Amino acid sequence: MLRGGERPARRFRALLHTFLGVYYALILDGCGVDHIHVHHGYFASWVAMVAARLLHIPFSLTLHGSDLLLHSSYLDIKLKNCEFCVTISKFNRNFILDHYPEVEAAKIQVRRMGVIPPNGVGSVSSTESAPTPLIMLAVGRLHPVKNHAFLLRGCYQLKSRGLNFVCLLAGEGPERSWIEHVIRNLRLEEQVKLLGHLSRYQLDACYANADLVVLTSRSEGIPLVLMEAMARARIVLAPAITGIPELVQHGQTGYLYRPGSLDDFVAKIEEIRNSQSASLRLRLAARQHVLQHFDREKNLAALADLLVSRITTNARIASHENPVLQ
Known about the structure:
The chain is an alpha/beta fold. The protein has helices at about 10-30, 45-55, 65-70, 75-80, 90-100, 150-160, 175-185, 200-210, 225-230, 245, 260-275, 280-295, 295-320, and strands at about 35-40, 60-65, 85, 110, 135-140, 165-170, 190-195, 210-215, 235-240, 255. Strands 7-6-5-8-9-10 form a six-stranded parallel β-sheet, with helices on both faces. A four-stranded parallel β-sheet has the order 1-2-3-4. α1 (about 10-30) crosses α2.
């Protein structure tokens, strides 16, 4: 806890989490636990590391997005002590190996997230006339990391250029009042609608009616929102950041814009609006890509296989080294 450049408050929290690790070790002792896995890299991974050390068993963790890219406190220590690390994209794996060169490459395993593909995909006809208005959908928390300010500025430019559109924002969060204020100031009341929190049934209906699903986040892993939209054969537009290009292949399974470029974002929307007749191939390719690489049941099975194989291997080694256990 004295190493690195962590702030005093962070060090103090790590000390408290160490006591939590001792507490969990006492609870788990005698329960026959052979391995501890933590599904993120935040404080719980420190707790698991401490408990595993005290119990003389291995632990592992999954790294998604912000726990690696934004809030990586003591991650070097966690990676050094873990048996293996699962991450959700090749981008994340390369990031870990680049920024933590002391970590063995074989310890970092890629296991993708996924969604349950729906049976129906809605209309994917290429013969329909261009919709009026263009219906855009953004799904996510109303939180600064989702960068809704960027989206609203884009909507303002689209309105200024005379594009007929409606942008639906599904989700709740701490920025709702501020977003409502910006919508009023930019006079976007007719174009931008806040839907609030939606049930799964309501969200499915929004996906079905959307012509374009947009994402403007500053930081992401590989967003489930994009997977859900593509599984329903919807066109998506997202920034070319982190692991998103592994899901959205520009011009093949969706569209990417240059991160932070409002001009490119708006230009891509206009391009999509004007290429409705060519959308059938892309929509079907998007759905097929999700079915092949981001199916939740398949990817959960792959993660389970990894955990079982590691635990089984460790148990065999322990049994060999301690004949009394045989």
